[in-house]
Amino acid sequence: MPLTETFRVPGHRRHVPSTRQRVRKALADWGVADELADGVTLLANELVTNAVTHCRVSYAQVGVTLIHHGTDLILEVSDPDRDRLPRLHHSGPDEEGGRGLALVEALADAWGCRQERYAKCVWARFTLVERAHAPAGS
Description:
This protein is α+β, with helices and mostly antiparallel strands. It has one domain (3-127): Histidine kinase-like ATPase, C-terminal domain (Heat Shock Protein 90, 2-Layer Sandwich). It has three helices and five strands. It is globular. Mean pLDDT is 88; it is low at 131-138.
């Protein structure tokens, strides 16, 4: 049975830090640590920032879902602006923003977006690799 953590945050930048904290805690509770936890937390930050920056629906809430199922870890971020799908943008060196989806592309094993009935969802999938434990005394 998959492990799931789902929560909503108000669509304002000041709530992005609480997203990072909740994602980091869920990952720690599931034993996901190190670089993978850092990457998932960074992408949650980027996707929620994108949602609160670009969503044109008043008083919107942003949904965040983490799913740990077998060797897959999936991050989903949704907002009610269903007709504005994100596009990968290659920012120039002088641009201050526009690198969020490039980070998603670089860090996730796969990513995409889908339109739902009342929202859009941007998702990123990560493959968990079990680490071999060294025998005691070695």
